[in-house]
Design brief:
This protein is mainly alpha-helical and about 120 residues long. It has 4 helices and no strands.
Length: about 120
Amino acid sequence: MSDFGNNKGKRSKFAQFKPRKIVKPEQPLEYKNVEYLSKFIGPTGKLQSRRRTGFDGQDQRKLANAVKLARFMGLLPFVGSMQGDVEREPRGGRDRFSRGPRDSESRSDNGDSDSSSRGER
């Protein structure tokens, strides 16, 4: 006889939910603890997510408030990281404010070509 109501030997359609491992902060989450707080700030100045830090909601809020207070007091930068501020070349090989074509070969060296294209005499 076969049991139709029993699912022995069959796989479940859905994966089992694994609870996330919650991490407690190693040091106190205070605005004065700048070195520890800077670990949780990315290179663009954004806070890392709860999934990345592993903190529970309460500790993540404490972290956010401590970073906000440290930024307000001038201990942490609002944008970018504290280590390795390197200037980068602009993309495209030219500065943002230059106008005209990218390469000088496409420009016409002929001075009266502008007037002839407009139909002026």
